TrEMBL record:
GO cellular component, one term: membrane
Protein's name according to its UniProt entry: Major facilitator superfamily (MFS) profile domain-containing protein
Keyword Transmembrane helix (UniProt): yes
GO terms for MF: transmembrane transporter activity
Domain Major facilitator superfamily (MFS) profile: 33-134
Keyword Transmembrane helix: yes
Localization annotation: Membrane
Transmembrane segments: 29-53, 112-131
Annotated membrane topology: Multi-pass membrane protein
Key words, A-Z: Membrane, Transmembrane, Transmembrane helix
């Protein structure tokens, strides 16, 4: 009788652990989706962000006044466009390069620690970007 009660108790514990594990996987999945929703916007929304950066005057010192074929004067901002493209290229390359150290952190510290570290780094970069000026 004692063995039967002990087995039932162990079975109940295992079921609880399995249910908790399944719930934890769903929470991890949902929080990952929310993170992608909030933190992937800069990479995917770069075209819109570049327009705003131009309007704010980032790299506007690279714009020069040029005379056209019919003696009209216009502003050539190709240098500004090139610099903004360079920023995007470096950011894209770094996001791919960071996967190697990110894998190391995942293996050694676990998912939650790695995600918290990534959120802190991203938030710091976002704040530096927000408080920057042209």
């Amino acid at each position: 009788m004692h063995n039967l009660l002990l087995r039932e108790h162990q079975t109940a514990e295992r079921m609880l652990v399995c249910q908790f594990g399944a719930m934890l996987r769903w929470v991890t999945l949902l929080s990952g989706l929310v993170e992608c929703l909030f933190f992937a916007g800069i990479a995917f929304g770069w075209a819109s962000l570049a327009v705003i950066l131009k309007r704010e005057g980032y790299f506007s010192d690279l714009c020069i006044n040029t005379t056209g074929a019919n003696s009209s004067v216009y502003t050539d901002c190709s240098g500004q466009d090139e610099q903004l493209s360079l920023v995007f290229t470096i950011a894209s390359m770094m996001s791919r390069f960071i996967t190697l150290p990110n894998g190391f952190f995942f293996d050694h510290f676990g998912t939650m620690t790695t995600r918290i570290l990534a959120i802190l780094v991203f938030t710091t970069g976002g704040l530096l970007f927000a408080f920057s000026s042209a």
